[in-house]
Amino acid sequence: MAVPTAPIKSSTNATRPPRLSDRLLLCSDGLTDMVSHTEINTVLNQKKSTDAIKALIQTAMNAGGKGNTSVIIVYNRSY
User: Fold this and answer.
1) Which of 22, 32, 51, 76 could form a disulfide with 47 if both were Cys (CB 3.0 to 4.6 A apart)?
2) pLDDT 10s digits, 36-71
3) Is 9 inside any structural domain?
């Protein structure tokens, strides 16, 4: 397995500690290069996690993505 040599992009938008039922999106640039943050938020707010993952990947592919799109949603059920 190769280790990436490019710097890892980091984005933190949290302004408060996580609460129960919060969802954390972890994704590759295959998603964020193809889909706007506004569109990502819209999908996340309209769909449950499993449907949102599928919808986000499909949206990236429809926007011209060539694959290599990873999406993980972590659902905070308890501490």
Assistant:
1) 51
2) 999 999 999 999 889 999 999 999 999 999 888 999
3) no
Q: What DSSP string runs through the chain?
A: -PPP-SPPP------S---TT-EEEEE-HHHHTTS-HHHHHHHHHHS-HHHHHHHHHHHHHHTT--S---EEEEE----
Token look-up 């943050």 returns 37
- Rounded to whole angstroms, how far apart are CA atoms 34 and 5? 22
- Is residue 39 in some structural domain? yes
Whole-prediction pTM value? 0.75
Amino acid (1-letter code) at residue 78: S
